[in-house]
Amino acid sequence: MSEKTITTHVVGTGDDAITYDVHGDLAAATADRPALFLFAAPMDATGLALLAGQFTDRPVVTYDPRGAGRNPVGTADISVEQHAADLHRVIQALGAGAVDAFGSSGGAVNLLGLLAAHPDDVRIAVVHEPPLAEHLPDRDAVLAVIADMKRTYADQGDGAAMAKFIPFVMFDGQVPEDYLEQPAPDPAMFGMSAVDDGSRTNPLIRNMPALIQYHADLDALRGLGDRLVIAAGVESGDTLAARGARTLAAAVGRPVTEFPSHHAGFTDQPGYPGDPEGFADRLRTVLDGA
């Protein structure tokens, strides 16, 4: 597999500076093989590198979401609309026309925001496991857990908040009403310190609750027809993000497209192996309309 040349660019200035990478030559994009924009949130471009490397037939674009990676840091909450505007600015800066877009996790929610605001930016949109609470039967319980996590972050800092986040996103099934009555997990269980260093720049926490409580424009999504693909991993069970995908698909009246592996199946992390090759094959098939 030949390696592509990767060039790095920045669109915007100051707090609005967004860093993105172009893998290959944008001039090679065609109507049926447009540039492929791969993104997540708050995962930055490094997390999509394995998946990007699987596509040799078209240029690929990756980026660092606002507040993450090589971009300026901050402490204020970040909205889906801000992320969608950033995606639009990157696509406009490419100058290559409409892209095929794969958004995963928080990136999937941000892709929904882009589709609502700028549907012509995207030819085919693959929305992979958006952690949306809106259509869940346990919506109120989910949002209560997120609110508690935000309070923990404000009062105790990063370690204490992330110790609550990790088991929550791995929780399989509906969130019970008494979920918050259990003892708070010890950050040391996850190799983190309970000491508050005073920083409040964690992009994951900054993205909440906006990502989780986002209200998707269902009419706009229905209008996309077959251009919209809503996906979930075959190993994801009834975790929040997989349930978000299924309930969104039901609300829009679209089928759920199964992808290999789990929520991060396009990566291959120690102790959490994915299937980047199988994931790429499935994405390629979806984009080819098969």
TrEMBL record:
Any one GO molecular function term: hydrolase activity
Alphabetical UniProt keywords: Hydrolase
Start and end residues of each AB hydrolase-1 domain: 57-156
Keyword Hydrolase: yes
Hydrolase listed as a keyword: yes
Pfam families (UniProt xref): Abhydrolase_1
Protein name per UniProt: Alpha/beta hydrolase
Organism of origin: Microbacterium jejuense
Lineage: Bacteria, Bacillati, Actinomycetota, Actinomycetes, Micrococcales
